[in-house]
């Protein structure tokens, strides 16, 4: 179970994020990066943050701790930015919080060396969850106390946006040519040998249990949240067994826009859903 806290103060927006995450303090005296349920990207990005964030953590990768955050929109009243105001108003109730890493720096491949073993683990993990958003354009990793931390797993598991085609989508290979760690000679074979056997049905079942029912309810074609949870488990379990052999690293693409859809990544900002 994820810990649940209550947001007590909206501190400031994080201007870099496409979904306009904010820094928020909570009643446990913690400081969190809050990902809003009312953001245009929708609740599935939060579901992906939980499943992939917790899975990464359980596999020994560094991912900031996650909490569920109760938000009373009244705490945003003094925020001057209208876009932020709208987002807070649209996000009353349960939201996602991620432990804020103070003083962390955005990962820069020219300034920080990553070993082949660690690069392999991150690339293999991103292939498993089909992360299209850890590229040299947008690394979505932080360096904190001299170590690499993984953030932003909202644009993963593309299959959960179209469950009817999920099995086919999940069977697809993973092109890591543009992955920000592609140039660090990732040892993918070693990572697959180490991590694939650890992605068990039991582990995945524990991970998906952390997603609140409310964010899994009313999914067309599913008889309730538990049926949907089981499908997440099935797809990830199947993909874990074989994805290691289907990761390709070729020439990195030129300075063209990301292939990831705008609404999933840092493209033009979408207005909050009212
Ligand atoms: N836990 C954290 N601690 C410190 N800074 C963070 C943390 N999480 C995010 N940030 C900062 O906020 C920025 C935006 O966060 P994140 O990438 O998760 O948001 P997003 O809206 O999903 O972004 P994107 O534009 O990549 O889709 C990050 O690039 C980083 O600078
Ligand atoms: Mg990001």
UniProtKB/TrEMBL annotation:
Family annotation (InterPro entries): HipA_2
Top-rank taxon, per record: Bacteria
Pfam family of the protein (one): HipA_2
Residue span, HipA-like kinase domain: 14-240
Region (Disordered): 248-274
Name used for this protein in its record: HipA-like kinase domain-containing protein
